[in-house]
Amino acid sequence: MDIDELLRAPLRVVNVGLERFTRDLHDQGVPVIEVDWSPSAGGDERLRELLSKLGS
Amino acid sequence: MLADRIEKANREAVERIFAGDPVLLDVRPAADVIAGLEDRVVLHAGPPIAWEAMCGPLRGAIAGAAVLEGWAKDLAEAERLAGSGALAFHPNHHFDAVGPMTGITTRTMPVMVFENRAFGNRAYITVNEGLGKVMRFGGNDEEVLARLRWIASDLGPAMGQAIRSLGGIPLKPIVAKGLAMGDEMHQRNVACTGLTVRAIAPALARTMGEAGKLATILEFVSGNDQFFLNIAMGMAKALMDPVRGIEGCSIVTAMSRNGTDFGVRVSATGDEWFTAPVEMPQGLYFPGFDEVDANPDIGDSTIVETVGLGGFAMAAAPAVAGFVGAGGAAEAIAHTRAMYEITAARNPAWTLPALEFAGTPTGIDIRKVVETGVAPTINTGIAHREAGVGQVGAGIVRAPLACFVGALESFAATVGAT
Amino acid sequence: MSGPVVFNRVRRSFYLDSVALMRLARELAGQAGVDEAALMIGSASNKQVLADAGLLADEGRSAGADDLVIALRAAGEETGRNALAYAEGLLERPQTGADEAGTWRPKTLASAAEALGDANLALISVPGEFAADEARKALKAGLHVMLFSDNVSLDDERALKAEARQRRRLLMGPDCGTAVIGGVPLGFANALPRGDVGIVSASGTGLQEVSCLIARGGCGISHAIGVGGRDLSDSVGGIMTLEAIGTLDSDPATRRIVLISKPPDAGVADAVFARVSQSRKPFTVCFLGLETVAAPPNVRFAPTLRAAAADVVGENLTPAPPDFDAAAPSDRGWIRGLFTGGSLCAEAQVVLKAAGVPVVSNAPIPGVAASPAEGAPGHVLLDLGASEYTVGRPHPMIDPAQRNKALASAMGEREIAVVLLDVVIGYGAHEDPAGEIAATLAAPADGPPTVVASVCGTADDPQGYDHQVQILEDAGVIVARSNAEAAEIALRLATG
C-alpha cells in the first residue's frame, strides 16, 4: 500500500527494537509483532559488509 | 546485479529440488554399483578424516567392517591394519553415497539404489541394521557382524528382487504421507517404515519362495521403527545432488559429520567442504547411560535436514521436540518456523498439517544462516564414545555456525564479492 | 538392609511415545534412593537394552511388544515400591498444555512481517549503526518505516528516503521519534483526539508540544508525521517533508496542515513553499528560531510552538499566567533550563531571545551563543537529549537519571534564580517524570531557586496530564500551561 493508503488503513506493525513499543501498541489494540532482533552476523563488521554485498 | 544473480541461482536450486522424482530402484552389493569402491576401501560418514583423528565409534565400525570383509581375522588385527595405512578411507559423499552415524560402506554390503528420475542421477546407502548395538553406532561384535552377513545373504537380495519386480518405489508420496502421520524422517520413521512394508510386502511374498524366510524379513523390517531412515537419506541425497555446482547459488547441498568435524557443501563452491568441530547433541539417554558416555555428533543423516526434513520438519513430530524441551506442538512448530528463516522456499509436495499445511522449509541459504545466527536444527541418534557399545540415546544438535561463516567467505570469493 | 534391588512392573496393552517415556524415566531416576530407571515398551530389542543395563527382572521378561515395562533399581524394598507407585502416578498425570517457552519469535523483519500478515509499518529502534540495514529490509518488504533510532548517517538517511520515495513509502525519522498515524501514537507520542489537523514535523518534541496544545485546546489531529530532524537540510532536501505534505494535502480527513522544523536550508525552504503554494489547504509554519519568513499566501507563520497551536485552535493560548508572585525570590539571578526535549529547549531560547535577554545553549538557535558546559554563568538552556548527553545512555525522556542529577546540582547553585523544566509524558516516555522531579526536589536546599515547568501531554496519556501537574504543584513547582509560557514566567522571575 502506498502512503495515501497507509493513512486510511488500520496499522499493522512490526516492531524491531525497544520492547516497550510492542507493549504500548498492544495495549492500544494495534496488531503488532516483535522481532527477536540481534545484530546481523552477530555484529561482525566484516561479515555484515560481505552479506550486504551478497544481497542479504 | 550480484544479489539478483544469487536470487536467480537459488530459485533454480529449489526448483530442481522440487522437480526431483526419487525412486528406490534396487538393492545390490555395494561393489557392483558404486564406481571406484575397491578392495580395502572404506567409505565413512562426514567430510574427509584420517584414522588418527577418528572418534571411537568410527574406528570401531571400521574395525568391524574389516573383519566382515575378511581383511582382518579379528578386531585387534583390524585396528592395526586400519592404523597402518593399508586401508583407504573416503567420505560416502565422494561416491554418490551416504550412511547413517558412522556410515560405513564396504564392498560386500548391500546398498539400496536410488534414482532421481527427473535428472538421472543415482545415490546409494546401506540397509538399516536395526536399533541398539549396530555398526552404525560403532558396534562390531559377532552379533553385529552376523546380522550384517544376514542382510547381505538374505535381506538385500530379497529386497532387490521385490523392488525390481515393482519397477521401483516412488518415495515422495511416502514421505508426504509420513509427514501427515507424525514422522519427520530422521528421529521418527514409524509411519514411513509401515508404509514401506505395505508397499513392498506383496512383492516380497510373490518373489520369495520360502515362507519362513519371508516371515523373518518382514519381522526384521517391521520391527525396526528406523528402517525408513536410510531410505529417507538415500532419497535426500538423490534430490540434493542435482543442486551441486550451480553458479552463484548459496544453497547448502550437503551437511555431514564424521564424529570429529561437521562439514557443509554449498552449490556454487562445488565439492569443497567447509568444516568446524562438531557439537555435542543434547538429548535423552537409554537406561544405564548419560552425557559422559556420548560421542560428539556423527553421520551423513543430516542430508535429511538438508532437503528440509528431520529437524526442519519438526512440526510434524511434536514428541521429538521433547528431546530437549518440553515436547509440545508449539515447541515443535517453533523449531520449523525458525528453519523458515534460513531457507529459500517451502516445499509444495511436503506439507505440515500443524502449520496449516505450509510446505517444509527447503534450501538452506548460507547467507541467511550467517545473518540470523540461526543454525540448522538437527535431530540425531547419540552413539557411545567408545567403540563397540552402540547407541546410547537420541537428541537434538545444532550445526556449528563456523561452517557457514567459512562457506560464506569462500562463496563470496567465488562470486567475486570480496 | 541388603544392596540395591531391581523392580519391574508391567502395564499390559499400554503405549506411550518413546520420547515421552524417556522423559518420565529421567524424572523417575531423579527420585531419592533410585539408582537407575527406565520406562520402555517391551519389545525384544528394548528388553535387551534393559537386560544390558541390569534392569530386567522376571516380571519385565514377561512383557510383550504391546506392554510397558517400568524398571528401576532402588536402594531398598520400600524405596523401590514407592518409586514404582510414583512412576504409575507419572503415567496418570494429566499433560499440561503448550509450553510458552517453546513459542516462536521471528528473528528477522521479513519473517515477522509474514507471520503477522498484512503488516504495513515497521517501527525500528535498534542501535543507529544497525538501523539503516533494518530500514532497508523493511522497505524491501514493502513496509512503511518509522525510524526511531538516532545516530543514522546522513548518507544512509538520504539513500533510504530516496528509496522510500521511489517505492511510495513513508520513511519517518531518523532522530525524530514521534508520529501519530490514524490516531496511533508511534514512539514518543501522545494520546490525541482524532480531528482535521495534519502535522508534518522535523522535530519530535515540537510535534508533541503542538499536538498536545491543539488537543488541550479542543481540536483533534488527523495524522502527525515526523520526518526526521535533518529532513529540511540541503543534504536530505526535504524528501519526506514533501512526501508528507503531498499525502496530507490529498487526505480528505485533513483540513489544515501544520509544518514544524528548525530553520531549513534556504533551497529546501523554497522547494517546500513551492509545494505548499499548490495546496488549497491553509498551512501554519513554525521554523523554530526564525521570527518571520517569506511564504505563500496560504501560509501563516508562527514564531513559537505555542503560537502554531494557537493559530490552529483559533484562540489566544496565553491568558494571564498563573499566580506565582508568592514564590518569587527576593534575589534576581540566572535561569538554568534543563530540557529533555530539543525543540522545547529551542522554543525557550526563542522566548528569551525575543525579550532581548542574552542566553547560551548547547543546542543554540540562530543568534544564540553556544555554551559547552552547564556550569557557565548567565542564562543557560540545556538540551539534555543532545548527543553529548545520550551517547551510551538512554534518552532523558525514558530515563530521567541524568536530568535528576543536573536538577539536584542546579538547586544548590546560589547564582541560579530559576530552574526551567519540561515534563514530556505520553507513550514511550518515563512512567512518572513528574514524580522523579518531585523526589529530586524533596532534598532540602539552602535558599533554593524557584522551579518552573510545563507538562507536554494530554489527559488520555498513560501518565495523565492532570495527575502529573498535581505532583509538580505539590512539590512546589510553578506549572505553566505551555513550554513557551514556562519560559516567560522564568524570565519574569529572574529578571523582574
Architecture overview:
The complex is a heterotrimer of chains A (56), B (418) and C (496). Chain A is of the alpha+beta class. In chain A, 43% of the residues lie in helices and 12% in strands. Chain A has 3 helices and 2 strands, in the order αβαβα. In chain A, strands 1-2 form a two-stranded parallel ribbon. In chain A, strand 1, helix 2 and strand 2 form a beta-alpha-beta unit. Chain A is flat. In chain B, strands 5-4-1-6 form a 4-stranded antiparallel sheet. A 4-stranded antiparallel sheet of chain B has the order 9-8-7-11. In chain B, strands 10-15-14 form a 3-stranded antiparallel sheet, with no helix packed on it. In chain B, a hairpin with a 7-residue loop joins strand 8 (261-266) and strand 9 (274-277). The longest helix of chain B is centred in the middle third of the chain and has 25 residues, at 142-166. Chain B folds into 2 domains: 26-235, Enterococcus faecalis V583 fold; 244-414, v583 fold (Alpha-Beta Complex), CATH 3.90.1700.10. Chain B is globular. By secondary structure, chain C is an alpha/beta fold. Chain C folds into 4 domains: 5-92, 2-Layer Sandwich (Alpha-Beta Plaits); 108-175, NAD(P)-binding Rossmann-like Domain (Rossmann fold, 3-Layer(aba) Sandwich), CATH 3.40.50.720; 179-317, Succinyl-CoA synthetase domains (Rossmann fold, 3-Layer(aba) Sandwich), CATH 3.40.50; 325-495, Rossmann fold (3-Layer(aba) Sandwich). Chain C has 17 helices and 20 strands. In chain C, the strands form 5 sheets. In chain C, strands 16-15-17-14-18-19-20 form a 7-stranded parallel sheet, sandwiched between helices. In chain C, helix 10 links the parallel strand 11 and strand 12. In chain C, helix 14 runs parallel beside helix 15 (433-441) and helix 15 packs parallel to helix 16 (465-474). Chain C is elongated and about 105 Å long. At the A-C interface, helix 1, strand 1, helix 2 and strand 2 of A face helix 5, strand 4, helix 6, strand 8 and helix 9 of C. Strand 1 (13-16) of chain A pairs parallel with strand 4 (121-124) of chain C.
Offer a few descriptive terms.
heterotrimer, A: 56 residues, two-stranded parallel sheet, 3 helices, 43% helix, flat, C: 496 residues, alpha/beta, Rossmann fold, seven-stranded parallel sheet, 20 strands, 36% helix
